[in-house]
Amino acid sequence: MQRLKNFIWHPLTGLAVGIGTLGQFGFAWFEPIWGLIVATSSYWFPAVATSSSTLLPELGYGDLGTRLLIAAASVFVAVQIDRLYERAQEYLENR
C-alpha cells in the first residue's frame, strides 16, 4: 500500500497527469500564451533574473528568489529550445 501511495504522489506522476490533461484538451488554448511568453522573453527574463537574484535577497526573500530564478531560467531555456527547433525545421524545409 505504501508503494502505491508513493507512486501516486511522485512528482513524475503529477507531470504525466498534467501532460496527459493538456494533450486531451489540445494545445490550441496554450499556443497564444506560449506565443506571448516567447515574444516577450527578452523583456521578462532579465527583469525576473535581476529581481530574484538581487532585490529579493535584500528584502529577506532569498529562498523565494532562488526558486523564482530557477523557474524563470527553465522557461527561458524552453523558449530557446523551441526557437532552435523552429529554425531547424525551417532550414530543413527550405533546403
Could you explain how this protein is built, in words?
By secondary structure, this protein is an all-alpha fold. The protein has five helices and no strands. The protein has one domain. The longest helix is centred in the C-terminal third of the chain and has 32 residues. It is flat and about 50 Å long. It starts with a helix and ends with a helix. The mean pLDDT is 85.
List the helices and strands and how they pair.
Layout lengths: L1 H7 L2 H15 L5 H9 L1 H18 L3 H32 L2
Brief write-up:
It is built from five helices and no strands. By secondary structure, the chain is mainly alpha-helical.
Please bin the fraction of helical residues: over 70%
Q: How far is it from the N-terminal to the C-terminal residue, by CA?
A: 56 Å
What is the H/E order? Answer: HHHHH
Number of structural domains = 1
Which structural class matches the secondary elements?
A: mainly alpha
Query: What is the tally of beta strands?
Result: 0
Low-confidence spans: none
Keywords: Membrane, Transmembrane, Transmembrane helix
Transmembrane segments: 7-27
